[in-house]
Specification:
There is one protein chain. It is built from 13 helices and no strands. The protein has helices at residues 13-35, 40-71, 77-101, 106-115, 117-134, 138-144, 146-152, 155-170, 175-195, 203-228, 233-241, 249-264, 271-291. The chain has 292 residues and is mainly alpha-helical.
Length: 292
């Protein structure tokens, strides 16, 4: 099925917009590599960027279900597979660029994957995403039956592996990796809340999740610096307590949670959506009256 068609085969502007949005980062990161003929610096930069976009898009995949529950926007389900396949495409680009940086030396690439733990972790995540992508078709769903759902729960450990890979390859500056870890924690909290029967349409529930996810993010960053580096972790704690620019990962996670809370107000049967509908309706009536 074409990525711009809905399940009934009709053109969907929403799916087309998502498809284009998923293409743009890839075009932007690959263009310098193509323009410079595969020069070393553009390739290295593209390796980093493609890895970051893999994690981001994978987390967007995990956002689809809770966001659908929060907003009751059912069409989000239509793009979940599309976004998941995009995550696999980006990890393939990531690995392909790494192979190019190693002069496509298969023996050297294999030995590096075996000897370097962060590459081992990343490669396992790649294989996992390949399996999920290969079984994402409707025919695979029919063949696997109930096993399909259990298999695709592997997306959670795969996301963890991706974040760990990100941390290990980031070395000292783990701000972006910490942000991704915090976002993952927030996404898991949405699922935990739903599992516990707490309404994801409650602004209180969503606000509490935003705060807890932010605190967890600060804790993750503290633990990394305390255990993995020689940088005093106390400085990290002090930085996380300050409102400064650029914002620390913990603050960004809190703000992302607040944004989701605000978005929830515009979901179906929510007050902000009703208020806008009334405002538009009143404006239409006023315009019609003035034209008479």
């Amino acid at each position: 099925m074409y990525p711009w068609l809905d399940p009934s085969g009709r053109f969907s502007f929403f799916k087309l917009a998502v498809f284009v949005a998923l293409l743009v980062p890839g075009i932007v990161l690959l263009w310098p590599v193509i323009a410079e003929g595969g020069a070393t610096i553009p390739v290295k930069e593209a390796i980093l960027q493609s890895g970051e976009w893999t994690i981001r898009i994978l987390l967007i995949t995990l956002l689809v279900t809770p966001l659908r529950r929060i907003t009751r926007f059912s069409k989000l389900v239509q793009v979940r597979r599309q976004v998941g396949v995009a995550a696999f495409c980006y990890v393939v680009i990531h690995f392909g660029l790494y192979a190019i940086s190693q002069n496509l030396d298969v023996g050297r690439i294999a030995s590096e994957i075996v000897l370097r733990i962060y590459l081992t972790i990343g490669f396992v995540a790649l294989i996992g995403l390949a399996v999920l992508t290969a079984t994402s078709t409707k025919s695979a769903m029919r063949r696997l039956g109930a096993k399909w759902g259990r298999l695709h729960k592997l997306v959670y450990p795969i996301a963890v592996l991706g974040v760990v890979h990100f941390f290990l390859q980031s070395k000292v500056d783990v701000s972006e990796a910490t942000l991704m870890a915090g976002m993952f924690v927030g996404l898991m909290l949405y699922r935990f809340a739903h599992w516990r029967g707490w309404s994801l349409r409650s602004t209180v529930t969503l606000s509490v999740i935003a705060v807890i996810a932010g605190l967890a993010t600060a804790g993750i960053e503290y633990a990394w610096y305390a255990l993995a580096t020689g940088i005093p972790a106390d400085r990290v704690v002090a930085a996380n307590l300050e409102w400064m620019w650029p914002l620390r990962p913990a603050w960004n996670v809190v703000l992302a949670g607040v944004a989701i809370t605000v978005i929830s107000l515009f979901g179906r049967d929510k007050p902000a959506r009703s208020w806008i509908a009334r405002l538009v309706g009143n404006s239409s009536v006023t315009a019609e009256a003035s034209s008479r």
